[in-house]
Amino acid sequence: MTERAPTRTNRPASRRPALAGLALAIAAALIAPRTARADVTADCEFLEISAKGGDKPAIDADLKPLEKKLKKPPLSTWTHFKLLSRSQKVLAKKKAEAIPLKIGSATATLVETVDKSKVRLTVTIDDQKGKQVVSNTTLVEAGDYVIMVHELPNNEGHLLSVTCK
C-alpha cells in the first residue's frame, strides 16, 4: 500500500478549532460598531437679552460683539439692550440640551457640522407659560452670532443670541 500525501481534508484535527476561532474573530471585528471615531460636538455660548425702545441708545458692555447686529433692522427697532443671562454649553449631535434663561426656557440641538467651520443648530424658546414662541434651525458660522427674536408687547423684545466654536 502506498502512503498518500496529506490533503486539505485530512489535516490534523487540532488545527480546525484554531482556524474556526480566527474566522470568528475576523467576522466579529468586521461587524462591530466603530467606537474609535470622536463624537461630534460644538462649544456654544448663549446670550439672553432684553430689548426695549427708548430715546437714548443703551447697549450693555457685555454685548459689544453684537453691537453692529443690534443696530441693523429689524433689531434697530429697539434702542436699549440688556444682558439677562449668559451660558456655555457643549452640544452633542442630535441631543437636545436645555439652555437656562431668566425668562422662559430654551433648548438647543446640534444637527450637524458643515465645512468644519459651521454648525447647524435647532433652537426653541418657550415663554414663561411654556408656549413655544420660537423654533428655528439655522447655520452658525464659527465666531459669528445668530440672534433669535421673540417680540413682546409695549415695543419690547426677548432675544437669544448664539455663537459656536
Strands in their spatial order, largest beta sheet: 2-3-1-9-8
- Count of separate structural domains: 1
Estimate the global geometry from the Cα principal axes: elongated
Rg to the nearest angstrom? 29 Å
Hey, roughly how much beta strand do the residues contain? Answer: over 45%
Report the average pLDDT across residues.
86
**Helix and strand succession?**
HEEHEEEEEEE
Number of helices: 2
- Number-wise, the strands total 9
Whole-Å distance between the termini? 81 Å
Helical coverage, percent range: 10-25%
Low-pLDDT sequence parts: 32-37
Structural class by sheet pairing and helices: mainly beta
Report on this model:
The protein has 165 residues and is mostly beta strands. The protein contains two helices and nine strands. It has one domain (41-164). 13% of the residues lie in helices and 45% in strands. The radius of gyration is 29 Å and the shape is elongated. The chain starts with 14 loop residues before the first helix and ends with a strand. 17% of the residues are buried.
Short description:
By secondary structure, this protein is mainly β. The chain contains two helices and nine strands. It has one domain.
